[in-house]
Automatic annotation (TrEMBL):
Organism: Nocardia rhizosphaerae
Domain of life, per lineage: Bacteria
Protein name listed in UniProt: Endonuclease/exonuclease/phosphatase family protein
Signal peptide range: none
Transmembrane regions: 40-61, 68-86
GO MF annotation, one: endonuclease activity
């Protein structure tokens, strides 16, 4: 009797775990602009792992049809996540190092930011949540010496955005109609020529799902309008993960996420100011006409995001 009750209990738990896995797969593909759905999609990979437990539970209970269903859900989950772990060939060309950082207003330790730039020999830095105070403190810490060219749109709290570069910047643009600042510039890289650089920061979905979806869509149009005859770099806190279909729409066509290109797996960047470790990867660096060879996360004391540092090969056109 006890064995039968135990089997029923295991079966029920396995069923719930498999349903959680199936929900994770479904969330990866949905474009429903509903706050609970969008927020749940952020943790889709964690839900997908439930199907593994489901398959094991069903197998223990010798429920083979249910086991096969759970294994199918596991396979579907693997298909959605495997591209993050498979590196593509980079080819040859000039190399750059790009860093993306959310500074939490002026909370990030400026000395730590500058030391990360120095230690990583960073050539291009894109930042979000840039205040005027942070601009002053980063300059005092030596950032302007390492990266002497800059185009900045600082603001209060989360609105500020910036680009620092080792190379001269021109064609600077600030895009209207967004809650936070979105900017771009053109860097002139020796032996290569112009490289388009974008620093973006769409609002989080909790600000308003319709606004979040609209800003991601319009930012996709903005970066796709970048000249096709040169490499393009897009760094930002996208407030979206690999499992949000609206983000993948941007990281498609001639654009690709550095994490995907380098096969770096799930690089979680947020939050870093809680008791739990970071759970989601919402910071990204996208490339067109270029290919990331390595990508890593770097902790920034005082910030609530980890920074990303990508090493990239630029392709001549």
């Amino acid at each position: 009797m006890r064995m039968r009750v135990a089997r029923i209990g295991i079966t029920m738990v396995a069923g719930a775990a498999t349903l959680a896995g199936a929900l994770g797969v479904a969330l990866h593909f949905t474009d429903a602009a509903l706050e609970p759905v969008v927020l749940a999609a952020s943790v889709a990979p964690y839900l997908m792992t439930g199907a593994v437990a489901g398959a094991l539970g069903f197998a223990v209970c010798r429920r083979w049809i249910a086991t096969a269903v759970a294994v199918g859900v596991v396979a579907a989950g693997v298909v959605t996540q495997a591209p993050l772990y498979v590196a593509d060939g980079a080819g040859a060309g000039p190399e750059l190092t790009v860093m993306q950082a959310n500074l939490l207003f002026d909370g990030a330790d400026p000395a730590a930011v500058v030391e990360t730039v120095r230690a990583g020999a960073v050539d291009v830095l894109t930042v979000n949540e840039l205040t005027r105070t942070a601009v002053t403190e980063l300059g005092a810490a030596g950032l302007d010496t390492l990266l002497p060219h800059r185009y900045l749109a600082p603001g209060r709290t989360a609105s500020g955005t910036g680009i620092w570069s080792r190379y001269p910047l021109s064609d600077t643009v600030e895009y209207d109609g967004y809650v936070l600042n979105q900017i771009s510039a053109t860097a002139t890289v020796p032996e290569l020529g112009p490289v388009s650089i974008y620093s973006v920061h769409p609002v989080p979905p909790v600000y308003g799902i319709a606004v979040w979806a609209d800003e991601l869509s319009r930012l996709g149009s903005v970066v796709r309008a970048a000249p096709a005859d040169r490499p393009v770099i897009v760094g930002g806190d996208f407030n979206a993960t690999h499992d949000h279909i609206r983000f993948r729409a941007i990281a498609s066509g001639r654009f690709a996420d550095a994490t995907d290109q380098a096969g770096a797996g799930h690089l979680v960047t947020y939050p870093t100011d809680k008791r739990l470790p970071p759970l989601v990867g919402i910071d990204h660096i996208l490339f067109a006409g270029a290919h990331a060879t390595t990508v890593e996360t770097v902790s920034l004391p005082g910030a609530d995001h980890k920074a990303l540092v990508a090493r990239v090969v630029l392709h001549r056109r």
